[in-house]
Task: structure prediction
Amino acid sequence: MADDGGDDQTPNPFEMFGGMPMFGDISRMLAGQGPLNWDAARQFAIMSATGGSGIPGASGVPATASPNIDPSVRIKYAELANIARLHVADVMGLDVPEVEPSVATPEQWAAETLEAYKPLFTEMATSLGPQDDDDDDDAGSDPMMQMMAGLSKMMAPAMLGMAVGSMVGNLAARAFGVYDLPIPRATPALVLVPPTIDAFAAEWEISLDEMRLWVLAHELAGLALFSIPHVADHLRGLVQRHVGAFRPDASAATDKLTSLDMEAGDPMAAMQRAFGDPEVLLGAVRSDEQLAMEPTLDAAVATAIGVIDWVVDAVAVRIIGGNALQIAEAVRRRRAETSPDDLFVERLLGIRLGADQTARGKAFVQGVVDRAGERGLDPLFNDPEAAPTPSEIEAPGLWLARVSPDLDA
Result:
């Protein structure tokens, strides 16, 4: 029973639901969940990674867990990694950390990724969380408005957990390894997803060992790049600024939903598209700060993608030979396929992963190498002030003139 006496030291935003049995039970369950409901995030991550759809129970077919990876597969990757590591180190002119490769099912990859980026997602959830003062001002003394404000506050962490979990799970269903998502982790990792790699190789009729070597070259290049402190700090800092700069806007969802055209086509399809939009699901719009930093974050992401892809191309030609071009083309086509999770990655994390970003990054890196040779990228690895600006991404010679003024670029 709710107590109006006011002896509680900490106000309970869900107290108003205490007299409503169903909502009272839900409010007690959710009251201590924090800014993001991690149980919901994990459940939806695993469900999305394993092919489950929608809300648990919405489909008659439950998600099916992937079988455990045979230990011999991990041993094979470890053997191939020793080959690829030497070539990645030679191409980049860097020491590649001696991280033992591990293997994971898609759902294991999803769980590990959620944990690895937990501080990032928590900061995002905090910035998206409702502000108590704003809620009080909006609700005023209207009981219905107070109830809706309380309901919104109660459901926001669960909704955000579902959104983050679904995003990570959908990425897990397609990921070859850690660096498909070019965000540095606090602890260097080399985690491969053999079921996805095997399926891709079979689909494109690629030799399995060659596909494994290609993926290892990609992952080791990402590992080496993001093990450079100033490179990792620069990109990680930009993403943290982006997720911390959200400004909640409850009217965003209302505006989007009221503008839906229910007369034309399939109303349910229109609703599904609407709730696939982060602005509707989370009630948030991009802030002026996020828009202002977008070019700098794009430049950092394009640089990382460009460097990793260039290293992979150089290494693959050495250890795979002529079939390296076939693999690169197959992966390029795969990247060109946009999906709803790409939208969430872009809107929530500020990371754009489409073909345009890949092309910009590869053009920049190739432009540097054409002008200055393979060692032309060394300032990027050695100089904390050498991160390319948005203008320099489009003009490699301009970047070289700044970081290598003695070079005739």
Summary: The longest helix spans residues 288-319.
